[in-house]
Predict the 3D structure of the following.
Amino acid sequence: MQPFTTLTSTPAPLKVINVDTDMIIPKQYLKTIKRTGLGTALFSEMRYKEDGSENPDFVLNQPAYRKSEILVAGDNFGCGSSREHAPWALLDFGIRCVISTSFADIFYNNCFKNGILPIKVSQEDLDKLFDDADRGSNATLTIDLESQTIKGPDGGTVTFEIDPFRKHCLLNGLDDIGLTMEKAPKIEAYEEKLKGRAWA
Amino acid sequence: MTATKAPTTLYDKVFEDHVVDRQDDGTCLLYIDRHLVHEVTSPQAFEGLRMTGRKVHAPEKTLAVVDHNIPTTDRKAGIAEEESRIQVEALAKNAKEFGVLYFDELDVRQGIVHIVGPEQGFTLPGTTIVCGDSHTSTHGAFGALAHGIGTSEVEHVLATQTLIQKKAKNMLVQVDGTLAKGVTAKDITLAIIGEIGTAGGTGSVIEYAGDAIRALTMEGRMTVCNMAIEGGARAGMVAPDEKAFAYLKGRPRAPQGAAWDEAVRYWETLRTDEGAHFDRIVKLDANNLPPIVSWGTSPEDVISVAGAVPDPEQIADEVKRASKKRALEYMGLTAGTKMTDIPLDVIWIGSCTNGRIEDLRAVAKIVEGKKIHASLDYAMVVPGSGLVKQQAEAEGIDKILIAAGFEWREPGCSMCLGMNPDQLKPGQRAASTSNRNFEGRQGYRGRTHLVSPAMAAAAALVGHFVDVRTLG
């Protein structure tokens, strides 16, 4: 997994609440057996018209945001289906950080497994970040995971909370499975205990 | 002096019982007793195992079944759509290669994973259950700690039989009173989501309690827990009781003989202690609960069937107002329209929320001897599993439904998410017993209204929403 340390980019504002993972990547793209190549399908039903051409009103089709690596979105981002295709699609498009007031649990987890940083901020800070994002290419945000800060275009700084273990894994690009396998003796000991349970 | 143990919740007990390792910051390694696998969220996980030379740690604790992609028409000819076929074949190949039990599309035990698990007795009280599918919360109806995970976590569980987890908060949803006839578990669960919102349970595990929950059948409890995720909760749980034990007894994977007795003695201890702490308590009165219908594109957008489409202009927050206006525009509805005045095109009955035998019986009871309304494009029933279908056919339910004008299909997820050919066309409006009314969920530009099976059946007869309690 690619480590996440700092990131500077023009943030794209997606002013919609309850953005669900069906919206992030509709079902027809879930038939893949690969993790890559989903960037063109990101937000496809909002991003493209029925004839397949781009919808110029959609934020990621506007010139200032076509290369945004930061998405600023309304409450409860990533709700619904557990599909990891959602963070895969974000990542493949180039988005490495999503900022919202809240995230659905499974999506939030899935981000960390893919080197994407989901940042929770207060409603007040989100409104401020939406204002920054509305300025298009005239404004960039700088995210620093180590110091847990978002630096705005006018020098203002927003700090954010993050679980220390998740932060550690993200900063170092650590693979969870490898870490867990180091605990194999503890797993075996637990399984020994299970043998005393006839039904388990 | 012996220290008195602090009272704990059902969730606390099941969680603590599965902790393999706890780091200083509270991050835990949780043992997973049961892992359900389907074709959509597993291919990349198996590929990951192959690339790293890892094995499935406990194949006997893993059960694979195909459900999302498969057609609901006759399957003997194979799957016409190439990408779906490749994904289904990949699961068959992976299950074989890694030694995992697999129910293919021609197996009578095949069905939606969340219907198959309980049916097989694979789902048991006090166990931890995961699946790369958000509706894994369903299994909490048996007092299991069950939740959805992403594909990276599927790979993690396959490789290690554990999951990295932090303890969630405890939330209690207390539903007391008696449901009116025609009002069901689906109405309870939709009303709760309407009350707490789709992020209301975020970071929490919900325990559903109260005499209205106790009075529900296991099927009903599964419907309630199934939609815990739509309220944002990591999982939903109900303390296991005689009903849960009776449901499981004799099922293929349930313990037998002395092991069964030992298991029941343990399962009976799985309940929240008097005085245990809940971070949040929400109460719902079942006595006055009406049938519920969704009007928007989020499961929190719900209202009584007697109500009208709400006016988003009343919402103060700009982003929220814009989102709900967008929902009305997508749904093709105007504020103030009575729910009973909304004409329907499609009736769809099925899903892991409402595709069990009790749901099909409820529909058959309402439509027996009647015909679906001529204005409908079609009405379709998709049983949740091959065994549900078999049971329904043994009871003659299929004949009742077909005589009323319903299509009777093969089991699977079908139009709940439309990964197979069962999809709404742009602009088509459905009364659906599924769990999500998201934009495009049941088909590109399709419009979904979430309802109970009884309400879907009633709507099928008149071509629009109607309070099932007023049908003669």
